[in-house]
Amino acid sequence: MQISQNVHHQKVHQTIYQYLLKIQKIHQYRIQQHYLNQSNQKQVFLIIMSLNLIMKKTRKVKNFNKNLLIRIKKKTINLKIKIFKLQIYKKILIKKFEKYNNLILILIEYLKTKNHVNTQKKNNQLQ
Description:
Blueprint: H1 2-32, H2 38-58, H3 66-126
Helix pairs in contact: 1-2, 2-3
């Protein structure tokens, strides 16, 4: 009985370690990118859901490392907060892009009209 419990213990530790590694990879990716795209957000949410399931299961195991559970909870909460902040940042970036895009369109229109006026002046001078 004790041996099987220890084996189960090790498996739980391994799965949690794997998920923590995945979280770390996603965090590194987030640092490289300005914001997460839809597929990465889904990945993060799947990992968070899996971690929540693991936490529920590990509560049943006796003598489980409580500190590890607390650290996992903190990481998931921090991840959720980071995702929320990144979504806001993404919206801000999109708004800025739209603003600059509109300015560029106005500038293009202005240059077209200016170019048109300049060609008319040249044509008038030639005549």
